[in-house]
Write a structure and sequence with these properties.
Elements (H helix, E strand, L loop, with lengths): L2 H8 L4 H10 L7 H8 L3 H9 L4 E3 L2 E3 L5 H4 L17 H13 L14 H14 L6 E5 L5 H8 L4 E6 L2 H9 L5 E4 L16 E4 L5 H13 L8 E6 L6 H13 L2 E12 L9 E9 L3 H8 L32 E3 L12 E2 L1 H6 L8 E5 L8 H6 L5 E5 L13 H8 L5 H13 L3 H6 L14 H5 L1 H10 L9
Parallel strand pairs: 3-4, 3-6, 4-5, 6-7, 10-11, 10-12, 12-13
Antiparallel strand pairs: 1-2, 7-9, 8-9
């Protein structure tokens, strides 16, 4: 197909093709990925365009030959102005580039694709340009892109919390010591108690399936303390070839009775995700009075298969129900066949993590299908002192050591706030006052054991031992 035929087929959306031609004729060498990202156009469309052009090649780079430029050179400006490009500080971008480069690599099973450092900085700048941030709180619903760190660098007056399923990301954010609060969460199983009603603003870059977007946005809404003026910012992108997919996502947002207050096209750029042009729009979503009953009625019915890859992808096949063998539990946790053990009580995984089971149980069978491996230690801790067997996954469960009475007490009271149980233990063992005991406890303990990132759980026994020996503690408030 000729270039003129491609232009004609594109119609009024032909700007993106002409922008690509303008880039390729400016004398520089371009990779396919760079053209995709710069034009926010799908890889398939750019490949079709390149086949119609007389390109010269150098390794993986291409350009229109100098002698041909006069036939193709087009003067074209950006289609939509960037509201914060004039605010970007290159030194902050460089700092974010270093942080992103050293961060844990993305996991395809979690649909991780890294936003560019410039994008992460521009997200933080947009927050400051659009909202009054002094005294505000931000909840990052997933943060593989490290938006939390950019916000703390640019707006240190903002209190930031991150909830994420990836313990590696949470540990890395804590290592930077920029004052970000971290909480572990599998959002399919619920939002941590300490994150509910925490924030004035929430931001998320979720899996780009309708249920994935709906779930992450719903959890962001649950995290708002300001239900009248709060906002949720959403990064979502789709190929220009698949408008129906974008429509399904917008239907998921409409089901939550949200107002699309603003949409910044192609605001987010990525290293990867070439199928959607390595770009995503940024939505500013405002809740209405109808949002809150919609969230309450829909959030627990959203599918757990929210990813595009891996065992919990929308196209993954459903595994056969697990076999209990000779194990005889007095409580079933998770999704079990209806005809299994009539009369034995059942609890949903989300409920199991959300609150302690009211009755005393001795033996618990937990069905944790593939894709929920990160939740396994928490699911086991939630059983307190009961015997637990986990079915449905081959992954083993590793719990932190409990060499002392205080650590054991904290982990046994997994639904309670760590700081409270820790303080009570120090008062009982050392005869301290509550204020003296509180001063020995680090600020990160203001969560339940089920919410703590794994590195905090692993280090818990060491920190407890240190608090016993602390003669002149710093003033850590919880």
């Amino acid at each position: 197909m000729s270039i003129d035929e491609l232009y004609a087929r594109a119609g009024v959306d032909g700007w993106r093709l002409r922008k690509a031609v303008s880039l390729l004729s400016d004398g520089r060498w371009w990779t396919l990925a760079d053209v995709v990202r710069e034009t926010a156009t799908s890889r398939r469309t750019i490949e079709a365009l390149m086949r119609a052009l007389p390109l010269e090649h150098r390794d993986q780079h291409v350009r229109i030959p100098t002698e041909q430029v006069k036939h193709y050179n087009i003067s074209i400006s950006s289609s939509i102005s960037d509201p914060v490009s004039h605010l970007v500080d290159t030194s902050v971008v460089s700092r974010l580039a270093e942080l992103i480069a050293k961060a844990p690599r993305g996991r395809s099973a979690l649909d991780h694709v890294s936003a560019t450092p410039e994008t992460v900085v521009r997200r933080a700048l947009l927050l400051g340009a659009r909202f009054w941030l002094p005294g505000s709180r931000l909840l990052c619903v997933g943060d593989h892109d490290l938006t939390s760190l950019a916000v703390r660098l640019i707006h240190p007056e903002v209190e930031v919390m991150v909830v994420d399923i990836d313990d590696r990301i949470l540990a890395y954010i804590d290592e930077q010591d920029l004052g970000v609060t971290t909480r572990w969460a599998d959002l399919r199983l619920g939002l941590p108690a300490s994150a509910r009603g925490f924030a004035d603003l929430a931001i998320t870059d979720p899996p780009y399936t309708p249920d994935g977007v709906g779930l992450f946005v719903a959890r962001g809404l649950e995290g708002l303390r300001d239900r009248d003026e709060g906002r949720v910012l959403l990064a979502y992108g789709a190929s220009e070839r698949t408008p129906m997919l974008a429509l399904k996502v917008q239907h998921a947002l409409a089901d939550l009775q949200l107002l699309n207050e603003a949409i910044y096209p192609d605001f987010n750029r990525y290293d990867g995700a070439e199928a959607i042009g390595s770009a995503a729009d940024l939505y500013v979503l405002r809740p209405t009075t109808k949002t809150w009953p919609a969230v309450a009625s829909r959030v627990d019915r959203l599918a757990t298969a929210i990813y595009t890859q891996g065992p919990q992808s929308v196209e993954s096949s459903e595994a056969a129900p697990p076999d209990l063998g000779d194990y005889a539990p007095d409580l079933l946790v998770g999704d079990w066949p209806r005809d299994l053990l009539p009369g034995v009580p059942r609890v949903r995984l989300s409920t199991w993590l959300a609150k302690p089971y009211a009755a005393h149980v001795s033996r618990v069978a937990i069905h944790a299908p593939a894709g929920l491996e990160a939740a396994l230690p928490r699911l086991v801790l939630a059983a307190r002192d009961a015997e637990v067997r986990v079915f449905g996954t081959a992954s083993s469960v590793r719990l932190p050591p409990t060499p002392d009475a205080i650590t054991k007490r904290i982990l046994s009271n997994s639904h309670g706030k760590v700081a409270n149980t820790w303080r009570e233990g120090l008062v009982a063992e050392l005869g301290l006052t509550k204020n003296q005991a509180r001063a020995r406890i680090p600020a990160w303990a203001g969560a339940t054991a089920l919410e703590l990132p794994m590195h905090r759980l692993t280090e818990l026994a060491t920190e407890v031992a240190r608090s016993r020996e602390d003669e002149d503690p710093g003033a850590h408030e919880v």
